[in-house]
Amino acid sequence: MTVKSTARARKKAAPGVPDNLRTKGSDAPPELVQLLTPEGERVENPEFPLAITDDELRSLYRDLVLVRRFDAEATSLQRQGELGLWASLLGQEAAQVGSGRAMRPGDYAFPTYREHGVAWCRDVDPLNLLGMFRGVNHGGWDPNEKNFHLYTIVIGSQTLHATGYAMGITKDGADDAVIAYFGDGASSQGDVNEAFTFASVYNSPVVFFCQNNQWAISEPTTVQTRIPLYRRASGFGFPGVRVDGNDVLACLAVTRWALDHARSGNGPVLIEAFTYRMGAHTTSDDPTRYRMSEETEAWKAKDPITRLRAHLEKQGLADEAFFAGIDAESEELGLRVREGVRGMPDPDPTLIFDHVYAEPHTLVEEERAEYEAYAASFEGGENH
Amino acid sequence: MAGQLSIAKALNEALRKSLESDPKTVLMGEDIGKLGGVFRITDGLQKDFGESRVIDTPLAESGIMGTAIGLALRGYRPVVEIQFDGFVYPAFDQIVSQLAKMHARALGHVKMPVTVRIPYAGGIGAVEHHSESHEAYFAHTAGLRVVSPSSAQDAHWMLRQSIESDDPVIFLEPKRRYWDKGEVLDAPDLPLHAARVVRPGTDATLIAYGPMVKVCLEAAAAAEEEGRQLEVIDLRSLSPVDFGTLEASLKRTGRGIVVHEAPVFMGMGAELAARLTERCFYHLEAPVLRVGGYFAPYPPSRVEEAFLPDLDRVLDAVDRALAF
């Protein structure tokens, strides 16, 4: 069976799949799903209808603001020497909150190292994320408690873990689904392309959520691809959709559709959330060396929070008291994070030996004993 | 399991028993289904356990390893077959950066009960990338357990013990010994990580594992004709190493020679020699010697016999050890 006919068969199996998004030739202009314009106007898209209450809209706004506040606090803490590094999500809040809020409790997310907004949606304590960047652990949360895997730093590795996890869901006969987060840079990795292959041939319930933030450290997307990334999916035999990554409503609607598509036995989906990394790659990076400030300014006009606030205001869905309340909550979060990080103790050095293996390993136990004896020899001694 | 089984059949039976005893056990690999694997180690298993438990995968080793990790996160117990030793390198990143570290970085919240079966080492007249001995890479990686059987009994029970382990295990199968036969008992007679004294002796200790155990036993038999009693220890586990058994032997014999196919330089023998020297210094009559492959890519098969340690090279090392 050719890929084309496979795609056609899948289209029939899943009503509501946007035909126009995956049948165009590679020379056609990319199409972008948008439900909320940068000016805050609601746009209807028959392919991705979104029924949403006023409370939900306000709740999304709260998520976006708090996530941005947390992120800003983390950047400051790095500058103050409290964190070794921070990878800011500034500009990508809508892509992360929209997709994160599309997940059901039983769904599972596999993040990169920048998915602080998704972590927020999965109820991972922000201090856990900061522990990793402070260097007290490599991620302190229980992935299976939050259905949110540990941050993965090697680019793209987690897309295979997500696919394997999704293969397990199929074996279990469950109706959960998985999101694999990655970026435009990772799209070039072999692991990502292998994940696409495995997910496709096993028809696994996984949504590949690519935040195309235009920059892989200093490399623009033109170094990674000659076609819009979402069109890569067609070569693997599953649908690809490009969504306005700064539009939280579109990200929510498209991801919800994709997860349902996947959990219903229709196989994987690739979502390309078209967004922008407003800050540096990490606090160690200097974007002034490789990109123009005009570009950043142009993207500022598409800010995800500004547009949702404009919508809430125009529609009369939130008043000054609401916004003031969110601002106050945001300050409280900042304070909690700041105090939490500063009060975070260093782990005991014997952490080095903990959990290397699940079952005892004689060499690790010997070296632990050697270390402890060595450390004890300093107690109160002149070498201390 | 009465009678004699080949190592290949003993492995096949181990996989069958593991599939029977735990519904979460799944096998993954290239050509392991209808074909039964290129060495037929999985022969008949897909027919009996179905395609969802004996999974033919795309030809992408990193993909196999990465999805096995994902399955383990979902509560499965994957047993991965890498078709040949030289094909594991595309999966190396997933093994050393992800599989090996997952339990530690998750502070013990997740376990990685993944067994990676690799037919390894040379001696079968193969083309390149089919004869590699890469055990040191894996043994050097904290978080992995590394074992290699040399007999049907160990092949069977060590594989079952590896699959039951909650840690990732690199299971190195000496492919040139697949057709050697031996008895398989109804129960394991050693824990997974214990070394085995396969021939007692008094004059020197040969330490080997996997395909070289047989070579060392042949060398010991030949030495006996010359009046020398060589002890042969099958290491069995390369991480962790059962230093207790090795130390006790060297303290009795005073001489130790490590034999492996992998290049001597930075090989398992280097670590064993260093640690045994530390532990047995005042008991040694000679430095711990090493016999192994040369520091060169595995050669074309017409000259592989010159590369691989054989009976004469082992006995040559014994002579040198005794001459000190």
Automatic annotation (TrEMBL), chain A:
Residues 64-330 form the Dehydrogenase E1 component domain. The keyword Oxidoreductase applies. Residues 1-30 are annotated as: Disordered. Signal peptide: none annotated. The keyword Membrane does not apply. It comes from the Bacteria. Keywords: Oxidoreductase, Pyruvate, Thiamine pyrophosphate. InterPro entries: Alpha-ketoacid_DH_E1_comp (IPR050771), DH_E1 (IPR001017), PdhA/BkdA (IPR017596), THDP-binding (IPR029061). Its cofactor is thiamine diphosphate. This is Pyruvate dehydrogenase (Acetyl-transferring) E1 component subunit alpha. It comes from Kitasatospora cystarginea.
Automatic annotation (TrEMBL), chain B:
Residues 5-180 form the Transketolase-like pyrimidine-binding domain. Its cofactor is thiamine diphosphate. Keywords: Oxidoreductase, Thiamine pyrophosphate. It comes from the Bacteria. InterPro entries: THDP-binding, Transketo_C/PFOR_II, Transketolase-like_Pyr-bd, Transketolase_C. Pfam families: Transket_pyr, Transketolase_C. The keyword Oxidoreductase applies. SUPFAM superfamilies: Thiamin diphosphate-binding fold (THDP-binding), TK C-terminal domain-like. CDD domains: TPP_PYR_E1-PDHc-beta_like (cd07036). This is Alpha-ketoacid dehydrogenase subunit beta.
